[in-house]
Amino acid sequence: MIPKKIAVIIFIAATIDYIFGLLVTVMDVDAAQYASMSREMFVNSHFFQVLNNGENYLDKPPLIFWITSLSFKIFGVSGFAYKLPSFLFTLIGVYSTFKLAKFLYNENVGWIASLILYTCQAFFLFNNDVRTDTVLTACVIFSCWQLILFSENKNFINLALGFAGIAFAMLAKGPIGAVVPASALFAQFIFKRNWKAFFHWQWFAGIIITLILLLPMVIGLYNQYGIEGPKFFFWTQSFGRITGENVWKNETGYFYFTHVFLWAFLPWSLVAVIALIKYFIELFKKRFKPDSLSEVYTIGGFLLPLIALSLSHYKLPHYVFVVFPLCAIFTAAFLERKIADEKKSKAWLVYLQAFVSFAMLSSIAIIISMWFTNANILLWIILCASVLFVLYLIFKGKNKAQKIVYPSFIAALTVNLILNAHVYPSLLNYQSGSQLATKANAEKINEPFFYYGNYQSYAFGFYAQRVMRNIGIEEIRKYKSEGKSIWVVGDEEVLKMAERNHLKIQKIYFADDYHITTLTLKFLDPQSRPQTLRKIYLIQI
Fold first, then answer.
1. 78-115 confidence digits (pLDDT tens)
2. Mean pLDDT (whole number) for 376-397
3. How many CB atoms neighbour CB 444 within 10 A?
4. Residue 440's domain spans which residues?
5. Beta-strand (E) ranges in 142-224?
6. Same domain as 332, residue 238
7. In a shared domain, residues 75 and 103
8. Burial track 164-184 (b if 16+ CB lie within 10 A, e otherwise)
9. Which of 70, 132, 240, 271 has the fewest CB within 10 Å, making it most exposed?
10. Beta-sheet strands, E only, within 297-436
11. At 491, phi and psi to the nearest 5?
12. d(CA 111, CA 341)
């Protein structure tokens, strides 16, 4: 058992980590792009037309832009206001995970599951580098919770809320929002041999609820793109990645999400894999009888979408995060059973989680001692105290919970506090767009801004609060012939352009630049880091 007081303390500590993350500068490319597009929607009030620097944009559904526009209206345009709605959805997702786990098992499993989810690396990451998946994941697990309630009690409110959750999940990222809850229900009904459940007329009522809620978006897509808009949303963007119709392809292989899961679900990934293996051993031993396990709702909802996503021709790490709440639940159920088992020693589980905890703490120690130094002394004190506390719990803990799960919570909380309070801010010193936007804002510049050449930074557009586009030499000459001053952002080419065309540079600012979401050892090493950087310039001509 995890006492409620301890669970609340862990939750509060994790929330402090998340708050530090809310204050971190928005990262290029995707997060800054969505922030910039949300600002554009907010300023121009074109809520049923998604634009990207004035151009039509079809790649993502509108929910993230809607909720961010609302946040901008309430709190003003800032990185904090961009990230806040996604964090609030995260809290909904964590609460839904608690309630679903409590319904399927008991309250203690609910606490463990919700804290596992709240402290896994993926959730810290996608509340910092905010994309559409944060909202998607919360809506999906909310829907899973409500729909399993409906399948048991036939309460229409649960049905309506469940399909509303599906609608919002689809508005966040597309049909994957329906695939996960459908997979979970399918697995549970098949396992329990509940054939009649497939034919409840209420499912059709639920589908109608979802379609009604999707209607404003569908109308907007049709008005903007014709029939290709709804077709792209319902088919090409998601299923087209499996059939090959979608132009996005990176052919990462069928087992790409295996290694993604191992780091993204830390510190719980190894025990989750073991739990899954144990569950399947039980199923095979009992020949998949309906009483083999108390539920396969979470296992089916985790595995079936994972298999479908693995068949896609285009994969990115955050695509798989949507099934993590379900994974947290069956992992928590496994841990609770092991903790409650008084007959057998669970030393192997203690050592496993101790290894993971020390690996994480050692990694962050290396990062701040070798790569991003000058960490606040308080962070070093917290890190050292965490190491000592983990050691104490492993060797002197009074029960299995203290020995098995508490060290993992401490490691996750410590690592992500240091990441959000020190490492990410240090890393973002090399994001030229936000750095130059800060300098531009300090100058209180009123003249037009443009990109030149191949350089583009959504972070610059968002923090400078401008709709940005590229400019060519002919347009520059036109501005100069009219006696107007403009500002241009670019790499070395912008300086060469000015020199070739005898354009006087009135003011110049520069910043170091690196694509910070694709880290390499050469960049991380302070000795070789300068070799990986380029200069980006903001010039007035």
1. 999 999 999 999 999 999 999 999 999 999 999 999 99
2. 93
3. 6
4. 431-540
5. none
6. yes
7. yes
8. bbbbbbbbbbbbbbbbbbbbb
9. 70
10. none
11. -90, -155
12. 18
